[in-house]
Structure formats: structure tokens, C-alpha cells
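Example record

One chain of 523 residues, shown exactly as stored in the release files.
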Amino acid sequence: MRLRSILVLLALIGWQVACSKPAPTAAPAVTTVAPTPTMAAPLSPGASISETPTWIRDAILYEIYPRSFYDSNGDGIGDLKGVTSRLDYIQTLGANTLWLTPVFSSTSPHGFDVVDFYTVAPSLGTKDDLIELVQQAHNRKMRVVMDLVVAYTSNEFPQFKESLGKPDSRYSDWYQWSNNAHTTYKSYANVRAMPLLNHQNPAVQTYFLQVARYWLSIGVDGFRLGDATSVPHEFWKALRLAIKQASSEAILLGEVWESDPKKLPPYLQDEFDALFDVPLYYTLAGNPDRDGGGWLNGRTPPGALDTALSPTTQLVRFTGAHNTNRVASLVGQDAARKRLAAVLLLTLPGTPLIYYGNEIGMPGSLGAGALADAPRRAPMDWTKSGKGAGMTQDLARTNKPDDGISVEEQQNAPDSLLSLYRLLIKLRADHAALRSGTAQPAASECKSCYAYLRWDANMLYFVAFNLSGETRSVTFDLTKPPRSMDGPGQDVFRGGVVNLPSNGRYTLTMEPWEARLLRWGKQ
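Predicted C-alpha cells for this chain:
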């Protein structure tokens, strides 16, 4: 789509350009008729798109699958009120931005096959519950990002039902049909319940631009947009321009599920503010559907992480999400490797993403059948017994009572995984060196070790990993530090004072799969 057609399209939608937070917009009636755009003055050719909002650089994302998070009414299904009731927990963890997987009305538990983009799934609550969640989050200086599915709909979506087998329907051009009779069609991952939309159709574009504006009007802070490769670049450009005209601080997070980093840059050219670093995930995990592979299991050369230390764009780093095996299962429930993964995630450059439950070490690997993803989206384990208030029940439970994997069991345990996450997130919040500081690898002769430095004008961190099952005594070459490390430093995990030898060569003894964190500078 050329720029002129984009501008004409946006002119039809009628954005109120002047306001950064749009006034609440009434939802169009949910019928088979697409929302009718209103007329407005066209945008000038010189209308600018704002830069990436700065807040994403300091964000700690926390992904929530609401159905499995917290049950507020005892029906066994997690809901939006449940998420609101757990905001204190999320805040004490240190996360400041929630990412909610789809909450729209749909035909399945996962919510990605949407039936109505203007209503909340009844099992999760109401629009008012979502508004309350957003308001309560904002009161805590937290943000809320919604998952917006634009690549496909449910096959129960009104426009699809009216055009299936009806080539003369006014919605006949909404989908990608495979025959002239409109009885066969292209679908996402060949799942018939998810027919792919035709984004070349201006009516489809208009519809989703209005959907985005509607949810921005209730106060959400942006959208996670998945399956970007299923949608043409022209649509993403139009969506970005429209959203930025509605709210310059709204974030667009794109998911480009490609292992090749060279395929990411086009999506950052006037399309997304930030992308999930899927190539890095492949390096860390090896395969999102298998356990035991990747850098975190010593299956990838340690130096493969060098490129992750100097990202040229805003990237979201993650060790697991709703569509991958959980990190605890990936590393075989090994306690040391779970801790190592946490240290890596929260000391790398970029924006960290924590998938709910990973902070307590919940397991979960891809299963089989229609609910194959259920173990990866299992109920958040709040209690030692696995029962009680808030525990959800409608998806596969992957952990057991009294197994040490629950918030109750780890809440007040200084050596727990939960406590480690809290410590690392606090260090990241307190010290810009870990958020936006420069990074560079630190050399050693150890073939199964890796280390890097993070620093700014006030603080320098040294992060080291033993990626083997054997104890290693490793000397790292710090003869050319990026800033002075004169004076005593601190061993963050073990405690005690750290003094750098005058020759700049520092030796660490590391246990199997141990992560070490040292620092120098103003405390």
C-alpha cells in the first residue's frame, strides 16, 4: 500500500489527533456489519510517527495467561478480577508491565481464535473488569499491554460465517479463499478454526484500526501483535501510524517467529516499536517444543551470545512464553540452571520478559492432542498444597503439592528462585548499568564458560557463567576494563569484598552451572 492510500484510509477513520489518551469510545454493535468509519480531515503528508516510547527500555514484562493465573470467584477458571487481586504480588516481584494473552470472546480456552473483538470472554469477566485492572495497574505505576490478534479470526466470526460458501457476500473479500465457491480457505498453521484474513481489503484494515483505537480508549498501554509474518508490511505501517496518532506513548510489540536475525529489521521500519528476540530464544533453548537443548544446556557454543550484547534495536528477551516449553522443563528441573537462566535474562541488554510461574520454577512441556499447550499454560501455583483460594483447575496441572514450587513455599525463603528473581529485578531497577548500560564480553580460556560486563558512569557489573557439570577455576582477562574498577567490589550472591588484582586478571571458582555476579561502583 502506498503512503497516499494509507493516509486516505486513516482519514476515513477519524482519529482525534490532538489527544495522546483518547476519550472512551463506544463499542460498535457486534453484528455481521463492520463498524462504519466517520469522516475527518486527512492527515498531512508530513504527519510524523513518534519514536519508540522510552518507558519500554525500563520495562520488566510479565506475561499472564489469565485463565490460569488466579480464580476470583471459585469457578476453577482464572479471570481478570483475579489478575487485579494479584497486582501486589506482581509489584513485589518487581515487574512493571503486564502482557495479557487474548481476553476477547473466543471459541477456545487459549483465546486466539476471536469471535468478537469488542467484548471480553465471559469466563474471564467483563469490560468493566478490564478497565478496573488497567486503572489499578496505573495506580501502581504499572502498564498493561493487550494481545491483539489481527492475522486471523475464529471460523465463528460473523464476517466469516456470512462469507463461507457465499462468494457474493459483502464480506467475501475479508478472507483468503482457495476456490471460487469460497468453501475452502487458507488458515493459520492449517487449523481450520483460524481462517487467515485478507489484509489487502481496506474494510479489514479499517476494522482493526478501529478495534485498536477502541481498546486504547479504555487506557491500555499498547498491544502485543503476534504472527507478524502472516500479515503484510503495509498493514503494520498503517496500524502503527493510526495507533501513534491516537496515543504516542502506546507500544507495539511484534512477534516475528523467525530464527534468522536478518529477517527482523524490516519489521522495525515504521512498523513495531520493539520485537521479541526469537533468534536469541532459539540460541538459548534450541527448540521451543523440546527440552534439553540450546545454550542453557551447554549444547550451543558459549560465544554464540556475543551478538546479544549489543542489540541495535529494542528487543524483548525471554526464556519462555505461552508458546514454548517452560524454562524449568527445558533445563530438566536442574536448580542451578534455573538460577543461571534467571541471571542471564535479567542482566542482558534489552527488555526482559518473565512468563508467569517461571519465577517459581513451574515446569511445562508440549503435550499431545487438542490441548497440547495446556501443560505450558498450567495453573499458577500459589499454595503449598495446590489447593485453596485462587487456584485454577480447568487446565492441566504440572506440579505437585509440597514440591517446593509455589509462591507460598518460596515467598519468605531467601535462597528460593522467587527471591533471586526479586533481587535481580531490584538490581536492574536501581542501576541503569543493567538496564541501558554498555555491554561487552569478557575473555577467558575456558571453553565451557561465558562472561560479560555491563556498565555506566556509576556502576560496573561482571556476570560469569559455568556452562558445564564440572567445577571450574577460570581466569578472566579484565586488563582493559571499560571504566575504573579501583577499590573494593562486591560479590552479589556469595557476599564479601572483591578486589581486582593489579594485573587485571581475575580468577573465579565456579560450581557446576553456576552464575556469578560481581560489581564495582556506587552502591
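Notes: Confidence is low (pLDDT under 50) at residues 1-25, 28-48.
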